[in-house]
Amino acid sequence: MLVFDELKKNDPSLRLVAVVLMAGLFILLAGLWWVQVVSAREYQAHLDTQAYRTIRIPAVRGKILDREGRVLAENRPRYNLSLYLDDLRSPFAVAGDRLMKQARAGQKQAIAAQEKKLGRSLSKTERKQFAFTPEQVQKIREQARVQVAGEVVAEISRKMGEPLPFDAAKFSRHYATELAMPFPILQNLDATNIARFQENFIGGLGADLELQSMRSYPLGTTAAHVLGELRQDDSSIAGEESFFNYRLPDYAGVTGIEGKFNAELHGRAGQESVLVNNMGYRQSKDVDTEPLPGENVVMTLDLDLERAAENSIVNRRGQDPIAAVVVMDVRNGDVLAMASSPTFDPNAFAQGISREKYQQLQDLEAEKNRATFENYQPGSIFKTVVALAALENGLNVNEIYHVEADPLRAGHGCIYIGKNRHKIEDTAPPGPYDFKHAFIHSSNAYFVNAGLTHAGIENIVRIGKEFHLGETTQLFAHQETRGNFPTENQIHSGWREGDTANVCIGQGPVDITPIQMAVMISAIANGGTILWPRLVQRIEPQDPAAGGVTTNFPSGLVRDRLMVHPRSLQILRDAMLADVESSEGTGTAAAVNGLHIGAKTGTAQVKDSAGRLIAYNFWFASFAPFENPKYAVVVMVQSKELHGSGGLVCAPIAHDVYEEILKKETTGVTKALALAK
Amino acid sequence: MTTETFNEKYAKLDRLQLMALAGLMLLGAAFVASATTASPFEMEKVWFAQIWFRQVIWYVLGLGAAAAVCLVDYHTLARWSLVAYWAMILCLVAVLIPFIGQTHGWGARRWIDLPFFQFQPSEFAKLAFILAGANFLSRPPDELKQPEVFWQGIGLMMLPFLLILKEPDLGSALVLLPTGLVMMLVAGTPHKFLVRLIGGVGIVGVLFVADVLFAPQHWRIPMQDYQRQRLLVYFGANFAPANASAQERSEARRQQLEKSYQVRQALISVGSGGIFGKGWRQGQQTALSFLPAGAAHNDFIFSVIAEEEGFVGSVVVLTLYAVVLFTGLRIAGQARDRLGKLVAVGVVTLLFSHVFINIGMNIRIVPVTGIPLPLLSYGGSSVLCSLIALGLMQNVYMNRRGY
Q1: Of A396, A375, A382, nearest to A444 (Cα)?
Q2: Is the pLDDT of residue A3 over 70?
Q3: CA distance B398 to B395
Q4: pLDDT at B7 over 80
Q5: Which residues in chain A are closer than 8 Å to B326, comparing Cβ atoms?
Q6: Which long-range contacts (CB under 8 A, 24 or more apart) does B360-363 make?
Q7: CB distance A3–B321 less than 8 Å?
Q8: From CA A227, how far away is CA A224, in angstroms rounded?
């Protein structure tokens, strides 16, 4: 080698030095190769963990639309005023230095005072007692930061003319744990505040507006129960990165459509990474993955009918009655309206609700969807089932049944059943009844007799099973009860005539939900097809231009078919028509000019656990138009009034809904005609 | 005639070494600039007030000083070496006196503040030691066999060593030992002396490390806390005494993390550079101040280069130093007499010690000691001394043929 050759051959010590140098350089080279080539990835990872913070960026939640594309739930921008701490670094440092200087002056004074007291200068160890501990220095720096931040907030507050609270403890906590993120001062600014902020250009102070997306229900309480509630939840959903240093506020659907279709509405959160320096201050920002927006849910609801039903409840029943209305398309099971009262404003949940307000809602059980999530005794509307069972088993519609007079209540009938002649009261007067008369007067005695002598409990239960009473309609997973209906076992062990008599008039072990009733009425109206109710038509991408697939939910899914003769259904429908259109009927209040409605009214007693009467369930179960049924309207009201009835309490609400239906039908026809021209 | 002689002398400079030096200085200016970009304070200054430009000025001054050194034959310089040596000893004593010696907030009294320059006597003491040592050891080899002469040589080395250690500046003190030993070896000091010396130093070193790591409190050698901690960090030992409470233990762990911070960050810088690096001024470690702003352009300049230029950059730096060192050894081999050979060997060993300790510290094969990387680290004293030392070497080369 060049160098070695030139070294004098007879100089072994110089050669030794050369060898040692060579070895030393080789050790360095090997070490560098190990660190920079072999372990490079490990050190790069170290660098990343110390220099990057990841932030979860929520996706824009999908909208919820009615069947005509009208918006029921959307997102609107929300502006938060935040302090960007990286901009405040030098003010923090300056204030910290100033406070430290003061502290040192104080320290000097304390030492001087001590020296004066002792009359000598302090030794090194004695001075040490006055030295600042790292904790003290930290504390002083923190104090300086709080002071600076407090001053900035006060300054902004003064410029905006808006009192802004500053929580020192919260600020310190934020500084310690979320330094790379802006510190929120004021959330959800209104338009005035945004304007004031921008006019006064407060941005120079280290504060700026931060944009967030907020869930909004533009129509307030409309369809609140169907839409459901959100809660603030920023946890990762399936398929997302699970570790983030920081998370921006996000929502998760809990109930209703928001809950059932949360995965679809939610989209996929994106990731942003922030480069931080050794102190943890933000240096720069990078978007790693863009959030994937959630999909829109298009419902079967018709906003006009929904509103008509909700408004009618309020107009007819006043503030916060217990009531539910379901409107269903009898041909395909589409739920066109579903109202529940008392109601709530889902915006309150998305924005954060006050404790008192929440307590109020809790007391009213306002969050409960009464159309699906509560069992109610059907009362006389269950006579439709008894009628079908009796007609199928040879009940002659023209055969006259004489209702006995009740000796205790003048003008009312009754029936005695069993060996010990248990009396069941009737609201209808005594006298001769054929089927139709009995139906429109809702004679208990007639239907108890028909049930006992013609139908028999087995057949009533068979028909009820075919209607799938006692089973959920699977509209909502966690917000639906299945009602109650006697099982085969029940009616074969310890079952008495009195129980059958009770079932015949819709009392005893029979409970239904309004949605079940709507499915049942639809089947009666459409000729015996039990449909799965449908609330969502399809799920489609928010931005059709960006691609993505639309998922359609099939309409008119058949769940079962009623094994009864069409003639029986026709007889029943005729009787229901008479109930509204005959002057003697109980449902006349629902009648609408130009629309033939078939209906059955009902009233059931609500008893508490001690058996005391506390309220009534009033029912109105109907369909229209009679000639070519399209709509089923079921109204349920629970109330304490003594002299109410399904016809008095519920029929007017149904009337309002049918008015709206008629209006839609006629404008629809006009539209269709206009298109045809 | 005079001009011709001068030209002839000029032509006899070791060109290869000069090229390597030029390369190192270019790298030095470029990466001092890169290491200081993170500081907004620094970037606000006009270009000629920035640190990298100050470094360039030091290069120019250093080259001037080196040229001046080359003008006088090294024999003449060696005759004055004892004066320089004792002058530096005086400075080293002076620096220990408060009011004269300045700490600049580092806890060690190493600097004397002159109006234009913070003078670091320990750097110049190394130079003076090389000259004085070479002068002393260049006596006839037979005299070196006398134990008195051997011990005088040891004394010549130990006096500045102890004074620098007292500042304290362990790194600067330590580089004197290999420099002195190698000069003794090359001078022809009997091997038995050297073997004994190295054995003795080795035993003392082992005892010292054992003391730091394992000795109970009152058996320990008095030592600055930070020095002890640096050693503990290097050996990965626990700060906490064996009987410490849980709280003391966690406090010790926290302290250890804090103390090992610089080494860890330097390692992360070097390692994350990978093979090709992130590019000039693209290093994140300095940009985000994970490498402390005060150290990045100084003792840790190598980790900046390694991060930004990767393994390739490291190899370039090592190659440049290798060229300087081996041309230096060649100069030693070609020197006219033992004095010249000893001067050259002394300079080579001194440079090599700096390079090995500094780069070794960046990749954690050597404990952290504040020692600059010759010509690359920012610092007036260091740059001046390195260039003067290399000037001495060229002087030896120029005068290799005799009169």
Answers
A1: A382
A2: no
A3: 5
A4: no
A5: 3, 18, 21
A6: B360/A27, B360/A28, B360/A31, B361/B263, B361/B266, B361/B299, B362/B266, B362/B267, B362/B269, B362/B270, B362/B300, B362/B302, B362/B303, B362/B306, B363/A28, B363/A31, B363/A32, B363/A34, B363/A35, B363/B267, B363/B270
A7: no
A8: 5
pLDDT digits (tens, 9 = 90+) for B208-252: 778 777 777 676 666 666 667 666 766 666 666 556 666 666 666
Read off the tokens for A292. Answer: 């994937």
Per CB-CB distance under 8 Å, the chain A contacts of B290 are 50-51, 277-278
CB–CB contact B273 A40 (8 Å): yes
> pTM above 0.80?
no
Domain that holds residue B270: 14-398
**Nearest CB neighbour to B288, from listed A18, A28, A278:** A278
Straight-line distance from the first to the last Cα atom of chain B, in angstroms, rounded to the nearest whole number = 15
The C-alpha of B76 sits at a distance from chain A's nearest C-alpha, in angstroms, of 25
**How far is residue A517's CA from residue A500's CA, in Å, rounded to a whole number?**
20
Residue B8 located in a structural domain: no
Same CATH topology for A54-297 and A303-352+369-542+552-676?
A: no
- pLDDT tens for A180-237 read 888 888 888 888 888 888 777 655 677 888 888 889 999 999 999 999 998 888 887 7
Q: Is B367 domain-assigned?
A: yes
| Cβ contact B290–A277 (<8 Å) | yes
CB B51 within 8 A of CB B57: no
Q: Nearest residue on chain B to A46, judged by CA atoms? A: B268
Sorted by where each begins, the domain ranges of chain A are 2-38, 54-297, 303-352+369-542+552-676
As given in the structure block, the two tokens for residue B185 are 């070896």
Q: What is the pLDDT of residues B98-149, one digit of tens each?
A: 777 777 665 667 788 777 777 888 889 999 999 999 999 998 888 888 888 8
CATH superfamily, domain at A303-352+369-542+552-676:
DD-peptidase/beta-lactamase superfamily (3.40.710.10)
Pairing of strands A296-299, A64-65: parallel
Strands (E), A13-98: 52-57, 64-65, 71-83
Tokens (6 digits) for A343: 């109601």
Interchain proximity B329–A275, CB inside 8 Å: no
The pairing of strands A52-57 and A270-276 is antiparallel
- What is the ipTM, given to two decimal places? 0.89
Token duo for residue A28: 């360095």
The type of residue at A186 is L
In a domain, B327, yes or no: yes
Residue B5 has pLDDT above 50, yes or no: no
Which of A6, A25, A278 has the CB atom closest to B334's CB atom?
A: A6
Say if domain A54-297 classifies as CATH 3.90.1310.10: yes
Which residues of chain B make contact with A43, given a CB cutoff of 8 A? 267-268, 270-272
- For residue B3, is it within any domain? no
Q: Which residues of B are less than 8 Å from A46 in CB distance?
A: 268, 271-272
Q: What is the tally of structural domains in chain B?
A: 1
Please give the Cα distance from A638 to A323 (Å, whole number): 6
- Reference A326, options A314, A344, A308; nearest CA is A308
Q: What is the 3-state secondary structure (H, E, C) of A229-265?
A: CEEECCCCCCCCCCCCCEECCCEEECCHHHHHCHHHH
Which residues touch A222 (CB under 8 Å, ≥6 apart)?
A: A72, A303, A306, A307, A310
End-to-end CA distance of chain A: 103
Give the chain A residue nearest B293 (alpha carbons).
Answer: A278
Closest-CA distance, A277 to chain B, in angstroms, reads 4
- Cβ distance B363 to A18 less than 8 Å, yes or no, reads no
Q: Which of B270, B290, B329 sits opposite A14 (nearest CB)?
A: B329
Asked whether the bond before A342 is cis by omega within 30 degrees of 0, the reply is: yes
pLDDT for A545-556, tens place per residue?
A: 777 889 999 999
- Tokens found for residue A621: 């179960």
